[in-house]
Structures are given as C-alpha cells and as structure tokens.
Amino acid sequence: MTTDARPLSGKVCIVAGASRGVGRGVAIALGEAGATVVCSARSTRFGGRTEGRRETVEDAAEAAQEAGGRGYPYVCDHTDPRALYEFAAYVTRRFGPPALVACSVWGGAEGFDGARYADGASFGTPFFERSLRGYEVAIQTGAYALLATARAFAPVMIPARRGLIVALGFDAGEGSAGDVYYDLGKAATLRASAAMAAELAPHGLACLHLSPGYVRTERTFSAGLAAQATETPLYAGRAVAALAADPDVARHNGRSLFVADLARSHGFTDADGSQPPRYAPPGATAP
User: Fold this and answer.
1) Is residue 287 part of a domain?
2) Within a domain: residue 286?
3) CATH classification of the domain holding 174
4) Per-residue b/e over 244-279, b at no fewer than 16 CB within 10 Å?
5) Is the whole-model pTM more than 0.85?
6) Could you tell me the residue range of the domain that residue 184 belongs to?
7) What is the pLDDT of residues 224-239, one digit of tens each?
8) What is the C-alpha to C-alpha distance for residues 82 and 157, in angstroms, rounded to an integer?
9) Is residue 275 part of a domain?
10) Bridge-partner residues for 215, per DSSP?
11) Per the structure, how many domains does the chain have?
12) Which intervals of the chain are annotated as region Disordered (predicted)?
C-alpha cells in the first residue's frame, strides 16, 4: 500500500464517542488512512451499554483495524474529567501524544424512539412544555464533553506544537436546527470549538468544527428514520481523515466546515461513491 493510500500511517488518532454513529464512521475512515485509532466510548462488551444498545467501543476498534489501521478500544465517560485525565495518561504512555482528537460525543438523542424522547416530548416541542433535563444532557454531552476532552489532551499535545482537534457537531447557520435543546446543544459545541481554537493557536494546535448532514446511523435505523437520512457515517469520517492528512490544516483553525464542501475540495466520497450535498433541515427534523 502506498503512502498516498495510507497518509495517516504512524499517526495516533483519538476518536471520542466511537462506539456508534458518526464516531464509528470516523474511526473506520481513519483506519482506511492507516492511522493508529484509539476508540473511546462508554459502551463495552464487558460492562454497561448505552440504552442497552448492541454497539460497543470494541466493535469500533475492530472495524478500524479491518479497514487497514490499528484499532484500540478504551472505555471512558467523556463527561468525567478524572476518567479523561487517566485516558490521556494511558494514550501518552502507550503511544505518545496524539496527532488528532476527534470528539463525536453526543447524548442529546438518547431515549428518542423516532417520535418522542424519554420525557415524552417530541422533537420541536416548545421549551416551556418540557423538562429542562433534555437541555442539561445536550450541554453536558455536547460542549462540556468536548471541552473536557480537549482539556485532558491539549497539555500532552502542546509540547509537540502540532495537532488537530475536531468537534463533530451541526451548524445550522443563522437558522434553527428545529428543536430548542438540540439547537442550543449543537450551537454551544460550535462556539466552544471557536473559543478553543483561539487559545490553542499560539501553541501550534488547530481546532475546528465539522458539520455532517443527516447521518444514517444505527439510531436512525432503529427509530425508523433511515430513509430520511442523506449520508452514512463514513462520509464525515473521510472528511476528518482528509483534514488530519492535510499539511496546511491550520488555515482552517477556528472555522466551521461542512463535510459536503470538503468532499469536493479534497476529492473523497461517501460509502457508495457519491458526494451528497449540504443538508438543509426542512424546518423541524428529527436528530
């Protein structure tokens, strides 16, 4: 296999929230590019699983390995700072400082069955008719998890004066994502990535936000919404891999980028060889 086909060979990459969804797609795409992929999440074959779902962090690591890289699982709650510092110490001892940290942690859709959340609210229910718990979860598993993960890994990346942090989220632009809690959770993640970028730049690190479309994840399948989705998790994954392999990625520091735009500028495709365009939510749409 040529260097061009494995541009991330020898690079250590962290994927937070890798057990399913976009995170798993990122892990697989990094494996395609030859990276050493450390997959972290809460769900494991040997303990707890989110909502009892079957997907695990071990599955993601094996998928990255099968794609052509080296995959390693690590069970971690990315809202727990102590667990994150232990994770960063483990990675540094075993592999050295990572070249990439991609954070795809998001629990804002947990409990959603395709029609309603666990509290009985549907997507788009006004905030004054809902429990605040949905907002708390969106913030904690969005911007807080991103910031906590970066806080753990930035100190081990800064001495090398190089590295990339990618926040996987959703950029609704000047519009709304269709649901107040979902929208605020994603907007906070986007804003956090820009603030982190400004403070990391003097140390040689770059941070950016990446926005996929409506992704055909395991959760959308189980909720009966797969037909509405526009792309697979691999599309976003290949965008992350392309950015990680870009020697001039620092030019994007602090920006919010779209997977569809990067597909055209960097020449990658989705799993079926297509290049789905940017996704525009039709008013209110399911997460």
Assistant:
1) no
2) no
3) 3.40.50.720
4) bbbeebeebbbebbbbbebbeeeebebbeeeebeeb
5) yes
6) 12-266
7) 889 999 999 999 999 9
8) 18
9) no
10) 231
11) 1
12) 268-287
DSSP strand pairing (70-75 vs 100-103): unpaired
Rg of the chain over CA atoms, in angstroms? Answer: 17
Cα-Cα end-to-end distance for the chain: 38
Task: Pick the closest to residue 272 from 195, 199, 211, 216 (CA basis).
Answer: 216
The token pair at 6 is 């494995």
Task: Please give the structure tokens belonging to residue 220.
Answer: 């959308």
The answer to whether 78 and 167 have CB atoms below 8 angstroms apart is: no
Q: What is the pLDDT of residues 244-283, one digit of tens each?
A: 999 999 999 999 999 999 999 999 999 999 999 999 876 5
What is the C-alpha separation between 95 and 6, in angstroms, rounded?
Answer: 19
Amino acid letter for position 259: V
HSE-up of residue 76 (Cα within 13 Å, Cβ side): 31
Query: What is the spatial distance between Cα 15 and Cα 3, in angstroms, rounded to a whole number?
Result: 22
Residue for token pair 């919404």: 225
DSSP-assigned states of every residue in the chain: --TTTSTTTT-EEEEET-SSHHHHHHHHHHHHTT-EEEEEES--TTS--GGG-S--HHHHHHHHHHHTSEEEEEE--TT-HHHHHHHHHHHHHHH-S-SEEEE----TTTT--SSB-TTSPBTT--GGGS-THHHHHHHIIIIIHHHHHHHHHHHHHGGGT--EEEEE----TTS--SSHHHHHHHHHHHHHHHHHHHHHGGGT-EEEEEE--SB--HHHHHTT-GGG--B-HHHHHHHHHHHHH-TTGGGGTT-EEEHHHHHHHHT---TTS---------SS---
Q: Which two tokens stand for residue 253?
A: 């520091």
